[in-house]
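Troubleshooting entry. The earlier prediction with zinc ion gave an output that would not parse, so I re-checked the input for stray whitespace and re-submitted. Clean input:
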Amino acid sequence: MEKLVITAAVVGAEVTRAHHPRIPYTPEEIADEAVRAWEAGAAIIHLHARRPDGTPTQDRDVYAEIIARIRARCDAILQVSTGGAIGMTPEERMAPLELQPEMATLTTGTVNFGDGVFFNPPDVVERFAREMKARGVRPEFEIFDVGMIEGALALVRKGLVEGHLHFDFVMGVPGGIPATVDNLVHLVRQLPPGATWTVAGVGRHQLPMAVHALVMGGHVRVGFEDNVYYAKGVLAESNAQLVERIVRLAREIGREVATPDEARALLGIPQ
Ligand code: KMH
Ligand code: ZN
């Protein structure tokens, strides 16, 4: 089986210190969580940015500081969010692409997101894809429901995304696809040959979805963005603690964990 690529989504846009007192807000705090997650075995760090009071921001300069701080300390693949937070404009959401990160997320359709709407109409999705292509940023397709795979493949047919295709199935968002094994198998079956996939189970679904991905040959995303608990009623100490558990489980079933450079090779990212 392919080596396991672990993504740590260390901060997100929605979760606050009301949910977990150790949610990182400042660039220094976010970088610390990211580096600890890398030390634990994460090859990809999925990044969001915050203002010092915790408000989500897509400010290019805040991302630049976070990226510089992480880069100084490790070789993880840094993947910026272009999802940002509900209600942000496409221009705001695209701002971190100016930094030409190795990777960025690309959601290929609109989905209800709790009480809000994560709005991704076709013209916006195409604009994001064009911008990523022009800047040499590898997209990771964020798939919140099955129709979004078709949205991603439409970009490929239009030549807006070329090369290796990598998908992240975000499962269990209220309004998106429920986190069930049947749904995961169905999602995987829709992918074209050669594509890779990871799963991000939300809340209590994080661990069971990760375990299914491990045995199915997929990859795994964990972290505070999607889940702040280690067990029912027990907060995780850190993002690293969530990564460490996945590393242990992978080793128990004989799956090796990919380094960032091995992940680059698997995902078609130039070294
Ligand atoms: N915060 C969500 C509305 C992404 O990073 O690309 C969108 C999100 C997806 O987190
Ligand atoms: Zn995100």
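This one parsed fine. The domain at 6-267 is CATH 3.20.20.70 (TIM Barrel).
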